[in-house]
Design goal:
heterodimer, A: alpha/beta, 2 domains, six-stranded mixed β-sheet, 10 strands, B: MetI-like fold, 11 helices, 0% strand, disordered N terminus
């Protein structure tokens, strides 16, 4: 598994003449602000964030609600304009969405009038990647297989459970084989049991495809189990409070020794204390 | 019986396709599917029989309330006969019904042609929205009946005037619903489409329009209701044909059975049209009604 991942990382690095150690996403002094028209104010959501993400790395952002995690991910995806600073992907500045980055949404964001298959195929319709029709069909089949949804091609999203819907969302994000997978609290609306299964699925998929992943969550367990690095962001304006490295061997979800280990408990405690301080500020501020 | 049923259900693995079993046409299944219709039919038949009995034994002046049977007879005769060529006035319900129905359909078509693109443009472009919205709200909030004398002045007692009133009645619900549909398109769907590379045109064609379609249909549904009011008002006020005119005429000539027959026909027409659009709405947007199934 590690070999696969290593291979994928090496491959995409070599294509553009980079070594495998060059970071794929670089944010430098990134500031994001929103205009509140009614109050004639500008709200700084995220201030001076500097972060480098290595290829194949799984980075998890945690922090209180409203701290700008989503803004950060949206800046990488190109949905939100930057106020100052820069975000580069593979050395080129992000100016808008691109096929090298894909996103998984908290509320799934599936088109309700389309079948599972048609939803997964959507990215192909919007961008011309020079892929033949047969190749597209093959990709759709592969991705549905990867998320274990074979047999549900013709179902509509409203016929599926929450977990299945999000698997469609993940398949859609993987269809163009993007280098970077962005996930904005993808399992927040999913019940606890399904959630655990989805986390295992996510770990397996990312290990298989070797993608770089930036992942937002409110669950500290999720952060530790999935992340190579956990980045704690402070309350408004969001700044990086601490970066916590997580060094458990993968796969972690299927390995019960990880969750019961002393290091896990300490790590969990440490991150919880960091987040708790910020969360209490949230309550005071509102 | 129940025990064997349970046993047969337990025997399947999760992936066994045979676990979906055909129920077939048992008596219970037929009843489950038809009981709604049966209950409504019995309900209505009882209602009309009671009506008949009340008129016969209640000593009610037939000028005010005809017998149900007389109403149906009048309806039957009216729908199966037509006026002879060149008649000045037709007593046939069918003739008047066709006139009203054609006007309504024509008016609704024009209302759709104006309302749907208008609403979509207002939803899609904030300049068009801010220019048009005061007029749309002004006309939409004005009771349409107040405009009838003006249109009679402009266009006379003509079919054109009747259609104009139908259009002005039906266009605003259609326009406002289409507008609202565009405006309420889920932000996350738009964000998803943009992340996966949709340009502005694709965003409208592949996300906003399909999302708005059920809104447009419920706009048309409201438009039908308003349009029918427009039909009757236009014909009551001015004109010498149509169901509204026939109501007026039959009441003036003390033919109450005919008046009731026309009212019944209006109810049936209105309900049929509205149920058709309900079905259409459920058909094009099954995800919106998933909780009612």
């Amino acid at each position: 598994m590690n070999f696969l991942r290593h291979l994928a990382v090496k491959e995409c690095g070599e294509q553009i003449g980079m070594t495998k150690n060059d970071p794929i996403i670089v944010a430098t002094d990134l500031t994001i602000a929103y205009e509140l028209h009614r109050e004639r104010k500008k709200l700084v959501a995220l201030q001076d964030i500097s972060l480098a993400v290595d290829p194949g790395e799984f980075v998890v952002l945690v922090g209180p609600s409203g701290c700008g995690k989503t803004s950060f991910i949206n800046a990488i995806s190109g949905l939100v304009p930057k106020a100052s600073g820069s975000v580069t992907v593979r050395g080129s500045e992000v100016t808008g969405p691109g096929p090298d980055r894909a996103m998984v949404f908290q509320d799934y964001a599936l088109l309700p009038w389309r079948t599972v298959e048609s939803n997964v195929r959507m990215p192909f319709e919007f961008q011309d990647l020079g892929i033949s029709e047969a190749e597209k069909n093959k990709r759709v089949k592969e991705c549905l297989e990867l998320v274990d949804l074979t047999g549900f091609e013709k179902s509509f999203p409203y016929e599926l459970s929450g977990g299945m819907k999000q698997r469609v969302g993940i398949a859609r994000a993987l269809i163009t084989n993007p280098d970077i997978l962005l996930a904005d609290e993808p399992f927040a609306a999913i019940d606890a049991m399904t959630r655990e299964a989805m986390q295992a699925e996510m770990e397996r998929i990312v290990m298989e495809t070797g993608q770089t992943c930036v992942f937002i969550t409110h669950s500290i367990d999720e952060a530790i189990l999935l992340g190579d690095r956990v980045i704690v962001i402070s309350y408004r304006p969001g700044k990086i409070k601490e970066v916590v490295n997580v060094n458990f061997p993968r796969p972690r979800m299927s390995n019960s020794a990880v969750k019961t280990s002393k290091e896990y408990a300490e790590l969990r405690d440490h991150i919880w204390n960091l987040v708790k301080d910020e969360a209490s500020q949230t309550n005071r501020g509102e | 019986m129940a025990a064997t049923k349970n046993k047969s259900l337990q025997q399947f693995d999760t992936d066994d396709p045979n676990r979906i079993q055909d129920i077939g046409w048992t008596f219970k299944e037929v009843w489950r599917r038809t009981r709604g219709t049966v209950v409504v039919s019995i309900n209505l038949i009882t209602f009309f029989i009671l009506w008949e009995l009340v008129v016969i034994y209640g000593d009610i002046n037939p000028l005010f309330l005809p017998k149900a049977s007389e109403m149906f007879a009048e309806l039957w005769v009216g729908l199966t006969t037509r006026a002879p060529e060149g008649a000045v006035f037709s007593g046939s319900i069918l003739d008047h019904f066709l006139h009203s129905f054609n006007n309504l359909m024509f008016g609704l078509a024009i209302a759709c042609l104006i309302g749907i693109p208008g609403g979509l443009l207002m939803g899609g472009n904030k300049y068009i929205e801010s220019i048009l919205s005061p007029y749309v709200w002004a006309l939409a909030s004005l009771p349409r009946i107040a405009l009838v004398p003006l249109f009679i002045l402009f266009l006379g007692f003509t079919t054109k005037m009747q259609v104009t009133i139908i259009v002005i009645s039906a266009v605003f619900p259609i326009m406002i619903n289409s507008w609202a549909g565009v405006k309420t398109t889920e932000k996350s769907l738009l964000a998803a489409a943009r992340v996966f590379g949709a340009n502005r045109v694709q965003l409208y064609v592949k996300v906003v329009l399909p999302y708005t379609l059920p809104f447009i249909i419920s706009g048309i549904q409201q438009g039908i209701g308003r349009g029918l009011i427009g039909v009757v008002i236009a014909e009551l006020f001015g004109g010498s044909n149509g169901l509204g005119y026939l109501i007026q005429r039959s009441a003036d000539t003390f033919n109450t059975a005919m008046t009731f027959a026309v009212l019944l026909l209006l109810i049936v027409m209105s309900l049929s049209l509205i149920n058709f659009t309900r079905w259409l709405e459920a058909y094009v947007a099954p995800w919106r009604n998933v909780n009612h199934i």
